[in-house]
Design goal:
Shape: globular
Number of strands: 0
Strand content: under 5%
Number of domains: 1
Order of helices and strands: HHHHHHHHH
CATH superfamily: Hypothetical protein af1432
Distance between the termini: 41 Å
Structural class: mainly alpha
Low-confidence stretches: none
Largest sheet: none
Length: 165
């Protein structure tokens, strides 16, 4: 797996923005764990992990261009940046296209297209819920409407026990 090299490049790409680096590292960690809990094949596990690392690649551009980085703008700007970012690595075009598609849909909760998409959504929410101080109601709503993997549901309940009291 080339994950370590992608992480190293993404840290450099982040230009010292510790929030961005910590965020993608946490999402990567959860994506890795969820993929392992779902017993993904090695190639699919690599795809999930690489996507988790680059999923917010558009945030610096969005902050500069728009003054903020809401999900819809990340999805709009991210795929082209991810494609260019991954050029130096020897990934198949099919792999790169799927990563780019996922980057372009990592805030799209309806019409989830595959276990890789599901894991990315769940891993990102596990981190975002903490970073944004999500309410118990928002956590329960995501559990009901989005979370479908055994691992994601288990971790969400264990990490946010107050949401179920």
């Amino acid at each position: 797996m080339k994950t370590a090299a992608v992480i190293e490049k993404m840290i450099k790409f982040s230009e010292g923005n510790l929030h961005d680096i910590a965020h993608f590292m946490k999402v990567w960690g959860f994506a890795k764990i969820l993929g392992e809990m779902e017993d993904l094949e090695p190639a699919e596990q690599e795809l999930v992990e690489i996507t988790a690392v680059v999923h917010d690649i558009a945030c610096p551009l969005c902050r500069e261009k728009y003054g903020s980085c809401p999900g819809n703008l990340q999805e709009q700007e991210g795929p082209a940046l991810a494609r260019e970012f991954l050029e130096e690595f020897v990934f198949s075009s099919k792999f790169v296209e799927r990563v780019c598609w996922l980057v372009g849909h990592h805030h799209t909760y309806e019409g989830v297209d595959g276990i890789d998409h599901r894991i990315l959504l769940e891993a990102d929410f596990l981190v975002n819920a903490d970073e944004s101080g999500a309410s118990p109601e928002a956590i329960r709503e995501m559990y009901e409407k989005v979370f479908r993997t055994y691992g994601g549901r288990k971790l969400l309940k264990e990490m946010y026990p107050g949401a179920w009291k």
